[in-house]
Structures are given as structure tokens and as C-alpha cells.
Amino acid sequence: MTKLRVGLLFGGRSGEHEVSINSARAIAKALSAEQNTSKYEILPFYIQKDGRTLAGEAPQKVLGSGIPLLESQESSSGGHLISNPQTQTLNQWQSPSQVAEVDVWFPILHGPNGEDGTIQGLLTLMQVPFVGSGVLGSAMGMDKIAMKMAFEQAGLPQVKYKAITRGQVWSNPCVFPKLCDEIEATLGYPAFVKPANLGSSVGIAKVRSRPELEAALDNAASYDRRIIVEAGVVAREVECAVLGNDQPQASVVGEITYDSDFYDYETKYTDGKADLLIPARIPDAITRQIQDMSLQAFAAVDAAGLARVDFFYVEATQEVLINEINTLPGFTATSMYPQLWAHSGVPFPELVDRLIQLAVERHSPN
Ligand SMILES: Nc1ncnc2c1ncn2[C@@H]1O[C@H](COP(=O)(O)OP(=O)(O)OP(=O)(O)O)[C@@H](O)[C@H]1O
Ligand SMILES: [Mg+2]
């Protein structure tokens, strides 16, 4: 049997570079598991923090060590430079022999330029199957405003929110106070101010007063042209994993617990600050509701392959509100997405195998 060559694309320019390396290491290990070695051969591609992409030995080294490769190190590391940030054109991507050898891509890049449809557009142009959502699903899943509009259309309950642009925040001094008045009147405090297109809680602030609101809007505007402000809820945070294309399945539901004020960057990425609890301690009927809503959300943004859907469960009222969908969720050995599937009877190596098969299935006509 000829092996399928899997282009494992990892690293990337976003703040989640290190998470991506860890996700790729876990996936590479799963592809080397006994049941997968006869089926797949790994061709790793590493995008450095400055946007340069390396093929050959350098990505193997990064997968082995788990340590990012700095810009100055690539020439001595045996890497084959296949693109640079100034002239990153499709031609350069296609010309190196390693890129042409790939049968199916497994992009495991988080955040901007990784799960927002940009790399998915490049892979679509290459006409080679790839794991995960296409351009539309990725872009919708990245932009919190577009995502919320799609959820609204699908009738999925969510917190009250207001979409704002950088132009409104940095407008003349007569307009800005009116904007803040309106936010206070419609959403109240506490509220959450978020750049629409980041991730990992970067640039997100919980605000409880007018001065905090003003500062948070100004800060969010420095990250993104598009900003969203949401009414804050007191709720437990539960997550559900989805796997499939046109007939996707939902996993058991998991819960995230932590002691900090909210699930901010430090809580997310400092060992021991947050715990995953699988299955979540919620009534069966709520679990079914969350699974059903996850599948609806998956369809609403046109996701494919995989997604993790995050919810707020307001215990006092038994209300379930959708928070967001992540089309390339964290995929390290301890991440919620693979853990949810492991608890649903799909171990990590089988999960990776199924994702690759789903990519091939989606690419083939009919
Ligand atoms: N409306 C809200 N009410 C209460 N808590 C919120 C609200 N919005 C966000 N939070 C808190 O902030 C955290 C981060 O917000 P959110 O999930 O929207 O962004 P993100 O995690 O940066 O996005 P991504 O998951 O794509 O990386 C949530 O997990 C939650 O703890
Ligand atoms: Mg989140």
C-alpha cells in the first residue's frame, strides 16, 4: 500500500506559535502510532514567527525539541527555506519539491493567518485536500462578529452584544461618549470588550466602569479594526467537540474550571491554573441540548472536519448560551478537543486518522 504523505503545517505568525508546535508534536506522534505508520508518512513544514516557511530537517528538529527556531538559526539547522515574508507568493510555495509531494495537508496553526481562512485559501488554490474548514468556515469562525451574526440567524441563544469599529472608538471626542452611553444602556456592567479577530483571550478585558470601558475599547482598537462588546454573564464554561463533514457528530461535553476572574491568557497557558473536567457535571438534558447546538453552530458557519464549540451554562436559570466556535482548536495531548473524543471512544491516533480521511472525502467530487 502506498503511504499518503501528510504535510503537517505548524508554527505560524500568531501569538499561539508555541501551542501550534505542541499540537503538531502530538499529531506527529499519533501519525507514528502503530495503526497509522503503514498508512501515512509525515512531511513537516514549519512557519517561523517572521512568516518564513521551512521544509526538510529544520521542522523535524522543532518537532523533536518542541522549541521554536529563531530566524537566525534556520540556515545552520539544515532547513530548506521555501518562502520569505517579503515575497511569499504562491509560486514559491509550489516550487519546492517538498510541497509538490504532499497528498493531504494537516494545517495545525492557531489564530490569525492560521485558522482565519488565509492559509485555507492558499491550500484550496493548490488543489490538494486539507484537514479542517475551508475559507468560509475558517473566516466565519475567526471573526467574533460574523460568527455571532451567523449564530443569530440560526436561532442560537447568546449574550447581548454590540459590534464596533476602530473608527468609532478613535472618532472625534463628541462621538465616543455617545458610543459609551449606548453600550452602558444596552449591555450594562460587567461587560467584555474583545478584538473580533484574535484568540487566546488576547486584548480581552472585563470592564466594570466607564473609565475601564474607555480604556478597554482603546486597547482593543489597537489590536483590531473590528471590536465586539458583550454583556457579561455569570456562568460555567462548557465545551463540545464536533467531528465530521456533512453528517458531523458531537462528543461528550467537558467543563473548564479555574479560580481567576475569567479564562484569560495567563489562566489558559499557565500549568495548573485551569482544570478540564470530562464529562461536565451537568444534567443529561443540558448535555443533549449542548450537543445539538454544537452541530447547529458547525453548520451555521459552514465548518468542516473539526471544531470545538464553547458555551456558557447559566446554572441559576438552566440557560445555555453559545460563546464561540473554534475551527482549529488546541490539539496538544492534553487539549480539550482530543480529550473530549478520547472520552467519547475515539482515541487520539484514530481521531487524526479520521480527520485525514474526512479531508480526502471532502476534496473528492461527490
Ligand atoms: N460575555 C461573557 N460573559 C462572561 N465571561 C466571558 C464573556 N465573554 C468572554 N468571557 C470570558 O473570557 C474568556 C475568553 O473569551 P472568548 O472565549 O470570547 O475569547 P477567546 O478565548 O480569546 O477566543 P478563542 O477561544 O478563539 O481563543 C471566556 O472563556 C470567558 O472566561
Ligand atoms: Mg474562548
Question: Can you characterise this structure?
Answer:
The protein is of the alpha+beta class and 366 residues long. 38% of the residues lie in helices and 24% in strands. It has helices at 17-31, 34-37, 57-65, 90-94, 97-100, 118-126, 135-142, 144-153, 166-169, 175-186, 210-223, 265-269, 284-300, 336-342, 348-363; strands spanning 4-11, 40-47, 53-56, 79-83, 104-107, 161-165, 191-195, 205-207, 226-231, 236-244, 249-258, 274-277, 305-314, 319-326. The protein has a 5-stranded mixed sheet, with helices on both faces. A 5-stranded antiparallel sheet has the order 12-11-10-13-14. A 4-stranded antiparallel sheet has the order 6-9-7-8. Adenosine-5'-triphosphate binds at residues 159, 192, 194, 199-201, 204, 230, 232-233, 237, 262-263, 310, 323-324, 326. Magnesium ion (MG) is lined by residues 310, 324.
Brief sketch in words of this structure:
By secondary structure, the chain is α+β, with helices and mostly antiparallel strands.
Blueprint (SSEs and pairs):
Layout: E1 4-11, H1 17-31, H2 34-37, E2 40-47, E3 53-56, H3 57-65, E4 79-83, H4 90-94, H5 97-100, E5 104-107, H6 118-126, H7 135-142, H8 144-153, E6 161-165, H9 166-169, H10 175-186, E7 191-195, E8 205-207, H11 210-223, E9 226-231, E10 236-244, E11 249-258, H12 265-269, E12 274-277, H13 284-300, E13 305-314, E14 319-326, H14 336-342, H15 348-363
Parallel strand pairs: 1-2, 1-5
Antiparallel strand pairs: 2-3, 3-4, 6-9, 7-8, 7-9, 10-11, 10-13, 11-12, 13-14
The structure holds adenosine-5'-triphosphate (ATP) and magnesium ion (MG).
